Amino acid sequence: QAADMEEVKLGFAKCAHCLPMALTPDLAKGVKIEAINFNSGNDVLTALVSKSIDVAQVTYLHYITALDKGFDVVAISGQVNGGSEILTAKGIELKPDDWAGLKALIADRKAKGEPLRVAASRGNAQDIHMRGAFLKNGIDANKDVQFINIPNPSDHAAALQRGEVDVICTVEPFASQIRASGAGRHFTLPYDQAAGNLTNLIVTRSDVIKEHPKAVEATVASVVALVDRLKADKAAWIETINKYTGMDKAVAAEALKNAAPDYAMHKDSTLAIAAMMRDLKYISHDVSAAAEKNLDYKFLEAVTGKPKSDLGF
Amino acid sequence: MASIELKNITKIFRDAKRKRDLLAIDDVSLTVERNQFLCLLGSSGCGKSTLLNMIAGFEKPTGGSVTVGGKPVDGPGADRGMVFQQANLMPWLPVWENVAFHLRLKGWRKADRRAAAQEYIDMVGLQGFENHYPAELSGGMSQRVGIARALLLNPQVILMDEPFAALDAQTKMDMQEELVAIWQKQRCTIVFVTHSVDEALVLGTQVAVLTSRPGRVRELIDLDLPRPRDITGQQFNDHKRHILNLIREEGMQQRREAKADPVPAGRQGAAA
Amino acid sequence: MASIELKNITKIFRDAKRKRDLLAIDDVSLTVERNQFLCLLGSSGCGKSTLLNMIAGFEKPTGGSVTVGGKPVDGPGADRGMVFQQANLMPWLPVWENVAFHLRLKGWRKADRRAAAQEYIDMVGLQGFENHYPAELSGGMSQRVGIARALLLNPQVILMDEPFAALDAQTKMDMQEELVAIWQKQRCTIVFVTHSVDEALVLGTQVAVLTSRPGRVRELIDLDLPRPRDITGQQFNDHKRHILNLIREEGMQQRREAKADPVPAGRQGAAA
Amino acid sequence: MTALWKSWERAVVPLFILVAWEIVSRSGLLPAALLPPPTVVLHAWGDWVFGFDETAQGNSGRWLADALSSAVRVAAGYGIAAVSGILLGIAIGWWRWVERTVEPTIQMLRPVPPVSWIPLAIIWFGIANKPAIFLVFLGAFFPVLMNTIHGVKTADRNLIRAASMMGATEQQLLRHVVFPAALPSIFAGLRIGIGAAWMLTVTAEMVAVKSGLGYVLWDSYYFLRYDLVLASMASIGLLGYATDGLIKLLMSAALHWQHGSTLQSREG
Amino acid sequence: MTALWKSWERAVVPLFILVAWEIVSRSGLLPAALLPPPTVVLHAWGDWVFGFDETAQGNSGRWLADALSSAVRVAAGYGIAAVSGILLGIAIGWWRWVERTVEPTIQMLRPVPPVSWIPLAIIWFGIANKPAIFLVFLGAFFPVLMNTIHGVKTADRNLIRAASMMGATEQQLLRHVVFPAALPSIFAGLRIGIGAAWMLTVTAEMVAVKSGLGYVLWDSYYFLRYDLVLASMASIGLLGYATDGLIKLLMSAALHWQHGSTLQSREG
Ligand SMILES: Nc1ncnc2c1ncn2[C@@H]1O[C@H](COP(=O)(O)OP(=O)(O)OP(=O)(O)O)[C@@H](O)[C@H]1O
Ligand SMILES: Nc1ncnc2c1ncn2[C@@H]1O[C@H](COP(=O)(O)OP(=O)(O)OP(=O)(O)O)[C@@H](O)[C@H]1O
Ligand SMILES: [Mg+2]
Ligand SMILES: [Mg+2]
């Protein structure tokens, strides 16, 4: 009976939070999932909109970007949130969560004419989290500091190590690794802002929903099963990270402390992200209407049996 | 019946670099009877190759007409074999394939080509070199392959453009003897271009002395010296003295003109 | 006092391709007196260039000794000017810079070099071509630049390796006349390599006829013909007949050997 | 004795570099993870190839499969580039009207670096092998094309004359004269092309393929496995060297008539 | 009349392609965002250059700055590659002992595609300009080096003889004979090198730089701005074409003595 099962191509990126998607084929019931590993969320999104894959694990930001460009993407489930961490380089003497100290330092450096160098991967969830948190604390990431874009998170450790940046907002497991290697120190988890800790989202296209509603539902079911399993059993997750990345299990375990498996899709925070992205000129239209409309809760509702008001709506 | 007839040939080249016309051949008329051996004698750049190319069909005269065996020439063809100033062998083919290239074009099978080539390879004395590549041959050997290739076409007319110019004295002497022997055996018409007075006098039944640019026929000399010709003999040296005087006069005239216009001939430049 | 002395020279080359030794020069002894004009006459590959290169210091003899002006030769030097088989001009330098290359090496300033070059440019009759590049010159002109360059060294000895081989008959005649004039004016010693009997007889005070490989001196002929020499004259043709007979004998002998060993000479191959 | 020394002599400097590298990276000047010593690299490489102790983790024992996938991509893209580059090059070099119509477009596209086609390659060809093959094609196509055009245009006119003297038709000229005459130049293009092909496979494997030496390179980079990064670099270099050697072999077979006639044929 | 037609004729096919592209992408076969029509690309490009209506968002009006940063990286890496490639190439080509000691290492490194050095470039040189310059250097170095070696080795022995006949010392030989004789080959290497240089700037700007045409390319890809992706490709192509033209100009000035002596000098 496996032969006549519908097949779904599911793309996912390489990060500690994304990697467990590799487990979905085993959890899938009534659908055959082919999980494809991409280097960046951006490649996953491109593959989805060019119809190379059917379902994609991307970030909320990708979802907004795609809508801005008029692409047909529909969000069908959450996955894992969190994973962002702001760290400071060795020379920066700041206590954790000491925003006042950070502000003073920024003002001081600005006055000296060598603004604080703050790095992130532009357009990542971490970028948005950091900018939101800065704004909340009265820091303008565009004016008060010198923003440095390091697209590949694997370069973040080296940049800190070499003192090329002072503050960085990076993603797990690189954050844990930076801490473990002593290249940087924990400053804060930047979730106290409008976007919350939203990170990953499962999206598809409306034509896929129309043609293979059963397969989509089965896929959502496997994601939900995955999320439940991740909540219950971190060991399997650590195992996956270790297998795919070769990272130390200790680092992986550390990384998971900053991970919140969550299949809900948080509407308000999504709209906040859309607004923030527009302010940052990452997108050029107001997409809040589309962003709300294309959050499709019906599969989650069917799979979990919960009403959408319990699922982030 | 005339084998080759040139009637009032003129040829004008467009000199693209200096943007002017260049009169290379000026009103040349010549008739070469069947089985004759005509030597065209002239200095570098006087238009010898151009004249030969027009008989071969590689160039069209600007004015006048060329007929071979009564038919006007309108392109290269296998009825006129040409031996070039450089041997122009296909460097990627062994000697025998070069000789039999014509048969390859006609689609003959390898064994047949090989057999047909052998006759001509023997004729020019290259037994043992059938499978050598052009890069492994000396200049004289290459020219012999070129001659064998032209002979295999079994043409009525063979055109030869300074084929021995690059050879040393001894090889040249040998080749000249061989060529005369072949010509006597094959009974074909040969037009042979050279700038060596000795060579023209050793080979030809007729010598046409050309003027420097533009090329005109200065004098057409019939030779009825006995063969093999003795290049240190009396009669030979009388002809030689006569021709050298013609050339010297030419040279003096040319130098007077060169003083007025000190631009080197484009073609000579390319050969430098 | 002897200007150049070759004593029992032998030269063995290592033929890397066929992995065997090749005897190029076999026991040659020659003495060229001051102000003499020696012509080395021999067929292609007989070792003429090798002999000249040993006098110039580009090659070392395997056995024997070379002295110039009494001093043993141990490398190239500006006391011996050489005119090469190809003109070997620096293609990126204009005529006058090529002529004055020696002065450039000595660090002279441009204006001085230019002035010094002019004398020799005039001497070889290249006025008006000072700023031409080698690619724009005809073969004869290039050779004249090579001669001017060698003369500017003001050497006791000039070595010339078939400098006129590539020229057409008329240009060759002109150049030979010029060379004799320069030699008579400069009073230097010249060793001139050629494979043309006529050329050797027109130029030399002595002609050394070499045998084919390995090169030996077959005969050393003193010439006391009056200048300018008449190449159609009686005396000239007597010498010519004699030398041609020597060459013909050589050729016959060589052909007998070639039958036994049908491998073409490597050097000839490279020239093809 | 001297022959032995000669071959040793060539190895002296590379060996010295390896030893110095081992010492530097063991000394801890840089974090060892970022510049692993040669022995560590060799160990990881060994496990990648033979799979003895899982040092290379997911990649353990998969080297052959990786090398094969990369090689297949190179072969496909390069094959298409070689055939189309040679055919189009001959057409452009020979017929004026083809040159006039096709060349401007070619000249427009040529200076755009093949790497920058990656975004378009993905949307046009999706994921998996096709975009990689397309990029390899792009990289190898232009060197082959340009060299073929050059070869045809510089083919000795006299040989063409000689052949038409023997009654060759245009098609025969192209097949029996122009093509063989252009062959040395075509091979020069093919050799530049194979280098470009490997370079672009590595780049293309950055996005969305599941195996291949380049894939392992980027994957290892992403997770800071510098030992595997270096092992991939060496593997790619090795395969690049081997394929170049293959083409050189092919070349010396096809151009055997050139032997010894030029100095170049003895070099590189 | 005919001259006018001739220049038009060359434009026919490119124009046809542009029109076809416009029609296809307006027809909606592919999402317009993935293959924007030429007019849209031109609009975005225009805004990128002149900044008239913010179509290019953050990039609006910053084209010159981007082009300049890329050009500076190319210039630096290429400059280092050219100088060191030529000097080392002459040394390898001239002195046997240099060849024996240096060449094996070079032959080991050459087949490793420059792109695959990215991870090492970043840990060695950090972010910002240095790794990009290093990669550009790597890309341009080998073509220049190999061509210089080739040029020196094939330099006419007879010219060297002629110069030593006139008493030239070794240093003089190198300066006055070997270098100018190798120059045509060196320029061939420089021209291959400049193509590689642009290619590697684009690749290097994928990681860790803050401006440049390649940076805009990848950043626009990230935000699915395919109009800007295409505009960057065109910009890079244009600059690549221009720098190649510059080198050609330099070449024809330095090799003016070659004019007309070879067929090639008239070609591409
Ligand atoms: N295709 C051409 N275009 C322009 N000029 C040409 C062309 N072919 C020959 N010429 C010119 O026509 C003249 C005669 O050339 P041709 O080759 O016939 O001389 P030649 O007598 O064969 O000389 P050589 O003895 O050097 O071979 C020369 O001045 C040459 O520059
Ligand atoms: N460097 C070399 N290595 C090996 N063999 C050589 C070398 N130079 C010359 N020979 C051989 O030595 C012989 C004499 O060569 P050489 O160049 O002196 O002849 P030549 O008389 O000058 O001939 P040509 O008239 O063709 O110039 C030839 O057989 C040649 O193949
Ligand atoms: Mg001619
Ligand atoms: Mg010689």
UniProtKB/TrEMBL annotation, chains B, C:
Residues 4-237 form the ABC transporter domain. Residues 251-272 are annotated as: Disordered. GO terms for molecular function: ATP binding. Residues 251-260 have a biased composition (Basic and acidic residues). It holds the Pfam family ABC_tran. InterPro entries: AAA+_ATPase, ABC_transporter-like_ATP-bd, ABC_transporter-like_CS, ABC_transporter_ATP-bind, P-loop_NTPase. Gene3D superfamilies: P-loop containing nucleotide triphosphate hydrolases. Keywords: ATP-binding, Nucleotide-binding, Transport. Belongs to the ABC transporter superfamily. This is ABC transporter ATP-binding protein. It comes from Azospirillum endophyticum.
Automatic annotation (TrEMBL), chains D, E:
It is a multi-pass membrane protein. It comes from Azospirillum endophyticum. Coiled coil: none annotated. It comes from the Bacteria. This is ABC transporter permease. It holds the Pfam family BPD_transp_1. The keyword Ribonucleoprotein does not apply. Its main location: membrane.
